[in-house]
């Protein structure tokens, strides 16, 4: 089990500091990343919180999944590994 969490349905007003304050109740935070739009530099409404241990990550899920923050109900679960989004589609394309 991983210790990196996906945190979704975030208000666009939520700051990294607010997430740090909230998730530190579950244990020690290793890293926080709020995802921003590349073009506008505005929040996309989700981010990642990495806890130090799997036990702390599980505790954070139990404490904060469905937790209300800034008027939004958070969705907290284990982050899935980033899929390779390379330019190739298996090497072949259909030609019609």
Could you describe the 3D structure shown?
The protein is of the alpha+beta class and 96 residues long. It has one domain (4-78): RRM (RNA recognition motif) domain (Alpha-Beta Plaits, 2-Layer Sandwich). It is built from two helices and six strands; from the N terminus they run E-H-E-E-H-E-E-E. The chain has helices at residues 16-23, 54-64, and strands at residues 4-8, 29-36, 43-51, 68-69, 72-73, 75-78. Strand 4 (68-69) and strand 5 (72-73) form a beta hairpin. The protein is globular and about 35 Å long.
Describe what is shown at a glance:
The chain is of the alpha+beta class and about 100 residues long. The chain contains 2 helices and 6 strands, in the order βαββαβββ. The N and C termini lie far apart (about 45 Å).
CATH class: Alpha Beta
Low-confidence stretches: none
Strand content: 25-35%
Alpha-beta content class: alpha+beta
The largest sheet, given as strand count, sense and whether it forms a barrel, is: 4 strands, antiparallel
Mean pLDDT: 89
How many DSSP helices?
2
Order of strands across the main sheet: 2-3-1-6
Could you give me the name of the CATH homologous superfamily? Answer: RRM (RNA recognition motif) domain
- Please write the string of helix (H) and strand (E) elements: EHEEHEEE
- What general form does the structure show? globular
Topology:
Elements: E1 4-8, H1 16-23, E2 29-36, E3 43-51, H2 54-64, E4 68-69, E5 72-73, E6 75-78
Antiparallel strand pairs: 1-3, 1-6, 2-3, 4-5
